[in-house]
Design a protein that fits this description.
The complex is a heterodimer of chains A (161) and B (262). Chain A is an alpha+beta fold. Chain A is built from five helices and five strands; from the N terminus they run E-E-H-E-E-E-H-H-H-H. Classes of the chains: A alpha+beta (161), B alpha+beta (262).
């Protein structure tokens, strides 16, 4: 076991990890941040996406020790300072961008990464960027619509099935 | 997965030392290696992460063309290579998905030499030089079959140097579930000829389609290869596509890549 330290959602944290401890395990079991979901554990589904130094990563496919010292942001760090939902989260609620909610943490984190680098994406760009995030119930129309709405674009003409 | 000792050196010299240990294995992003270890198909005793080595990061022009540090993630190549080698940047920006591109690196990709990975086709078609901690290896000598390369025990890639072609393009046909290339073709036109690198299709991994190279060197247009056929005998078959299907894809995608290169 070795000790790793990093910044998670703005707070300095540390914990004991094995070499094989995944970032997703460290967040969920080490820090109790269970908002990051592990869907497939094979880097296919994207439910575990968090930001490491501002970049989206699949936390089930990164060792905690490999990101020691990094700044990590999880879904728990997405709400506004007063506890209200962030623009992206609110848009997912307003546009029914979630149903069971299992994929939602990853969807929100990937969407936030997209809007950080491309504030006004086209519908095609949103769909392409969310290629690595799989939803098995709502379907993608309302998720895409939520991301477009969160970017401040008119979504009245988008399909809403 | 089985446990291991983890090391993250910050210099090439320290990495070479760490990789000299018995059972040591390099980790360069881990987007293939970590899933492989979860399945217990690999169980190294020591894992040496190369992504903390600053001298192996980034993209810059230098002697021989574009130097890409082996630990540079795909997302960085996609952005920083655009001005120098747009076809390579486009390839990097199409690997996997955004989260995979944040972590996966060029060195990791070509050290693994997955037969359906994108990068090997660009390295081979560009006639790039693979630079390791010990020597320089020409692309034609580097790739040696499925998951097999010229790398020796304890040797690791530090950078890849790409000569810049006059025209180039990469076109792939995605396997939609895995996001790997069912078949992908990288075409690069240099002053002294055309090189065609094919990934995803061959039984022995990435290969050059030399008949197409000769035809395209004489006439760089998609029509130049219309009379050629690809022998399905050397092609891979799986549930996603037969050998004949892949052989056809090689020709179709080569034509599209030539057209895209302009």
């Amino acid at each position: 076991m070795t000790k790793v330290s990093m910044t998670v959602n703005g707070k300095a944290v540390s914990g004991e990890v094995e070499g094989r401890t995944l970032l997703s395990s460290f967040l969920r079991e080490g820090l109790g941040l269970t908002g990051t979901h592990v869907g497939c554990d094979t880097s296919q589904c994207g439910a575990c996406v968090v930001h490491v130094d501002g970049k989206p990563v699949k936390s089930c496919t990164v060792f905690a020790a490999d990101v020691a010292g990094a700044s990590v942001k999880t879904i728990e760090g997405m709400a506004n300072a007063d506890g209200s939902l962030s623009v992206i989260q609110q848009a997912f609620q307003d546009h029914h961008g979630l149903q069971c909610g299992f994929c939602t943490p990853g969807m929100v984190m990937s969407s936030a990464a997209l809007l950080a680098e491309n504030p006004k994406p086209t519908e095609a760009e949103v769909r392409h960027y969310l290629d690595g995030n799989i939803c098995r119930c709502t379907g993608y129309h309302n998720i895409v619509k939520a991301v477009m709405a969160a970017s401040g674009q008119d979504v009245s003409a988008l399909a809403a099935e | 997965m089985h446990n291991f000792d983890f090391a993250k050196p910050s210099t090439i010299a320290d990495a070479a030392k760490a990789l000299g240990a018995d059972g040591a294995q390099a980790l360069s992003g881990g987007q293939t290696l970590i899933p492989t270890m979860k399945q217990r198909l690999a169980a190294p005793g020591v894992l040496v992460s190369l992504t903390g080595i600053k001298e192996m990061q980034g993209v810059c022009m230098g002697d021989g063309g574009l130097h890409v540090g082996a630990a540079t993630p795909h997302a960085v190549v996609a952005k920083e290579a655009v001005a120098h080698y747009p076809a390579l940047a486009a390839l990097a920006g199409g690997i996997g998905d955004p989260a995979v591109r944040s972590r996966g690196t060029i060195g990791g990709s070509i050290a693994n030499n997955d037969p359906a990975a994108c990068y090997p086709s660009a390295v081979l078609a560009s006639g790039a030089t693979v630079v390791t901690n010990k020597r320089k290896i020409a692309a034609d000598d580097y790739f040696q079959g499925l998951f097999t390369t010229a790398l020796e025990e304890g040797e690791f890639i530090t950078e890849v140097v790409f000569p810049i072609p006059q025209k180039a393009a990469y076109v792939k046909f995605n396997q939609p579930a895995s996001r790997f290339a069912l078949t992908g073709v990288f075409v690069a036109k240099f002053a002294n000829g055309v090189r065609v690198g094919v990934t995803g299709a061959g039984n022995d991994g990435v290969f050059r389609w030399k008949e197409a190279e000769a035809a395209l060197s004489a006439n760089f247009s998609a029509s130049a290869i219309s009379g050629l056929t690809v022998d399905a005998g050397g092609m891979n078959t799986d549930l996603h596509g037969s050998a004949a299907y892949r052989a056809n894809l090689v020709k179709v995608l080569t034509g599209r890549a030539v057209t895209a290169a302009g």
